[in-house]
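User: Here's a structure from my thesis project, written as structure tokens. My advisor, Dr. K., wants to see whether a designed sequence matches the one we expressed. Can you design one independently, without my sequence as a hint?
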């Protein structure tokens, strides 16, 4: 007989390998992280008020454009997150059409000569990048570039992810919680919790991140067969035409309205977006598209002053990983964030065991 082992009084009854990683939030961030963790062998439970397939306007992931666009003004670390997302989305576009991810052409026009930290860094990873020559872009712009990019159709991608997660053994629990503390009570055996609650982090009692704010977006979906080219205009007039080939149309936008929580489409904004899209891409968007080809999208971007939060904190035996505040870029960062979270979970677990 070996010597009796003495464990601390709070040693969980569930063996290490079966203690689930708990994710609060089932938007693109929570679901992308769940998929990656499950693929790496971790048990995962997602708790969320809204789940894939839901259409509440506060559930941002249902309403995104959702284009992969290289964000300007970001750090090298954040660029790397976008690079990983790009790689994963490209793989899905090539190997899993049911994921709703497509490869499309992109044209970007820039109003002023690009600053040092502009979105032109995208040339390091996008295929077929080419600087446009004068004459290839409208004369009111200073320059432009074309490249191949990835668009994700959220109406297909979120249900696809839910199916993947379930097939890998992940579990969804529909529940609204008022605090992370509520979750600790629900899962006393778990020590790793991921807060991917988007705008929820503004109000969760033990988070109450004052930097978070809702940023209303409104888009027009225009049904057309001409849906293989993205147009992007950055500067004073923030306008995009994002193709959604699998739904046979394009998304016209955009608008950002801080702290506006109206779920009703504003028709003045819609008319302005159509007019701007027509100016940007007249060969795709006519001046007056027939009303029966149009529908309207309203969603709240989970924005955060100073940018998103992605970190890990230890509180006693517990690790709380935060991944929220992705504003208008949650899809472009998604799989890179999932990869980073996975590495943080592995580190936390290792520290717990050793
Ligand atoms: C009009 C529009 C266009 C966009 N276009 C693009 C684009 O082209 N490219 C791009 O990359 N991004 C785009 N985005 C942004 C993108 O949609 C978001 O960044 C992304 O969806 C955020 O994902 P998330 O998982 O953090 O949040 P969400 O999708 O909002 O998910 C949050 C989850 O947390 C849950 N939750 C929150 N609080 C609680 C609580 N108290 N209890 C239980 N559950 C809770 C919710 O129920 C939900 O499941 C766009 C957004 C909008 C609105």
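Assistant: Designed independently from the structure alone:
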């Amino acid at each position: 007989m070996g010597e009796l082992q003495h464990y601390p009084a709070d040693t969980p009854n569930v063996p290490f390998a079966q203690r689930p990683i708990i994710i609060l939030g089932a938007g693109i961030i929570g679901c992308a992280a769940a998929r990656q963790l499950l693929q790496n062998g971790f048990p995962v439970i997602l708790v969320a008020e809204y789940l894939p397939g839901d259409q509440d306007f506060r559930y941002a992931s249902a309403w995104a454009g959702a284009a992969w666009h290289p964000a300007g003004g970001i750090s090298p670390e954040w660029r790397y997150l976008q690079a990983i997302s790009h790689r994963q989305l490209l793989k899905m576009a090539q190997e899993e059409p049911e994921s709703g991810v497509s490869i499309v052409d992109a044209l970007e026009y820039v109003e002023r000569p690009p600053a040092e930290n502009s979105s032109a860094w995208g040339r390091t990873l996008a295929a077929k990048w080419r600087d446009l020559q004068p004459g290839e872009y409208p004369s009111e712009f200073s320059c432009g570039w074309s490249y191949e990019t990835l668009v994700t159709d959220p109406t297909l991608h979120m249900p696809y992810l839910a199916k993947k997660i379930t097939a890998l053994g992940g579990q969804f629990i529909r529940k609204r919680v008022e605090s992370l503390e509520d979750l600790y009570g629900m899962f006393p055996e778990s020590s790793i919790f991921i807060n991917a609650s988007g705008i929820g982090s503004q109000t969760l009692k033990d988070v109450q991140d004052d930097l978070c704010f809702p940023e209303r977006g409104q888009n027009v979906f225009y049904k057309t067969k001409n849906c293989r080219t993205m147009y992007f205009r950055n500067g004073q007039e923030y306008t995009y035409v994002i193709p959604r080939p699998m739904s046979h149309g394009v998304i016209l936008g955009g608008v950002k309205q801080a702290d506006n929580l109206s779920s009703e489409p504003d028709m003045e904004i819609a008319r302005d977006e159509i007019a701007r899209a027509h100016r940007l891409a007249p060969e795709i968007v006519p001046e007056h598209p027939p009303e029966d080809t149009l529908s309207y999208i309203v969603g709240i971007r989970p924005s955060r002053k100073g940018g998103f939060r992605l970190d890990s904190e230890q509180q006693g035996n517990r690790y709380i990983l935060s991944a929220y505040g992705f504003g208008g870029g949650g899809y472009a960062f998604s799989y890179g964030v999932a990869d980073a979270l996975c590495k943080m979970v592995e580190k936390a677990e290792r520290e717990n065991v050793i």
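When you compare it with your expressed construct, this may help: Residues 24-30, 48-50, 59-61, 63-67, 176-177, 196-198, 200, 204, 217, 219, 242, 297, 299, 301-302, 324, 326-332 surround flavin-adenine dinucleotide (CB under 6 Å).
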